[in-house]
């Protein structure tokens, strides 16, 4: 993006916001209203422009949080455990692989995953292992000051979104999001995503179903970095 185009768009955005605020204040104070097609316009000063540009660049520039995330870049073997009948029942277990790459100049991590997942057979109704491919994009939003992510896979058409924080010791990230359950006729079921960050980039990712309980575990994926 050219700086000229960027600055032009930024100026228009700031001017529109300030003008709208000025017009609203005038109306509330009982002053003469400007015609709808001729709103009062206040052009930002150089100081306002400089402050706005700095805020924009601060929000757009990768920082320390992104450097921490980059430590996860690599190739992994995965072990996925799924509790189909609740956390007290024995889980099913499958193996797979995962690749994590740094993209968009270090702003995000792109994760691609291959494995299997237990799914009911449409003809017999019996559960069988089904090949699965998934893609995730994860990052840190400087403006929101939150870790953010999204996930999609070959087992459905949902795009899962999540956001959360990292613990002060850097060992646990906790994110929250929503997940639909077509089998139950439920939309927007709240879930919790917890990642335990271990030595050498290894990590354990766990999904909890908050509709049942804060610690109701349904999926756990262990990532072991390949040698």
Q: How is this structure best described in words?
A:
- Strand 6 (160-166) and strand 7 (172-181) form a beta hairpin.
- The protein has helices at 3-28, 46-60, 64-69; strands spanning 74-82, 92-103, 108-120, 127-141, 146-153, 160-166, 172-181, 186-197, 203-209, 217-225.
- With 227 residues, the chain is an alpha+beta fold.
- It is globular, with a radius of gyration of 24 Å.
- It contains three helices and ten strands.
- It has two domains: 3-60; 65-225, Beta Barrel (Lipocalin).
- The protein has a ten-stranded antiparallel barrel.
- It is 21% helix and 45% strand.
If classified by CATH, what would the architecture of the largest domain be?
Beta Barrel
What is the average of the pLDDT values? 85
Alpha-beta content class:
alpha+beta
β-strand number? 10
Sheet with most strands: strand arrangement: 1-2-3-4-5-6-7-8-9-10
CATH superfamily of the largest domain: Calycin beta-barrel core domain
Number of helices: 3
Amount of helix: 10-25%
What would you call the shape?
Answer: globular
Beta-strand percentage? 35-45%
What is the highest CATH level, the class of the largest domain? Mainly Beta
Quote the distance from N terminus to C terminus.
40 Å
Encode the helix/strand succession as letters.
HHHEEEEEEEEEE
Q: Describe the largest sheet.
A: 10 strands, antiparallel, barrel
CATH fold call of the largest domain: Lipocalin
Query: Can you tell me the residue ranges where pLDDT is under 50 for at least 5 consecutive residues?
Result: 1-26
Number of domains: 2
- Give me the Rg, rounded: 24 Å
């Amino acid at each position: 993006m050219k700086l000229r185009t960027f600055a032009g768009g930024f100026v228009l955005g700031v001017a529109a916001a300030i003008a709208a605020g000025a017009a609203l204040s005038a109306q509330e104070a009982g002053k003469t209203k400007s015609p709808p097609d001729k709103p009062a316009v206040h052009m930002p000063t150089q100081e306002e422009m400089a402050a706005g540009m700095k805020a924009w660049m601060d929000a757009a520039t990768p920082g320390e949080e992104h450097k921490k995330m980059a430590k996860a870049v690599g190739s992994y073997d995965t072990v996925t455990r799924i509790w189909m009948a609740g956390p007290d029942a024995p889980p099913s277990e499958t193996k797979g692989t995962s690749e994590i790459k740094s993209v968009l100049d270090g702003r995000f991590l792109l994760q691609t995953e291959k494995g299997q997942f237990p799914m009911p057979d449409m003809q017999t109704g019996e559960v069988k292992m089904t090949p699965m491919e998934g893609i995730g994009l994860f990052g840190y939003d400087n403006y929101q000051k939150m870790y953010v992510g999204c996930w999609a896979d070959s087992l459905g058409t949902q795009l899962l979104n999540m956001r959360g924080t990292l613990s002060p010791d850097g060992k646990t990230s906790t994110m929250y999001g929503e997940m639909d359950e077509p089998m139950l006729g439920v939309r927007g079921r709240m879930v919790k995503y917890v990642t335990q960050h271990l030595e050498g980039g290894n990590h354990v990712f766990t999904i909890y179903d908050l509709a049942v309980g804060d610690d109701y575990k349904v999926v756990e994926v262990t990532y072991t970095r390949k040698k």
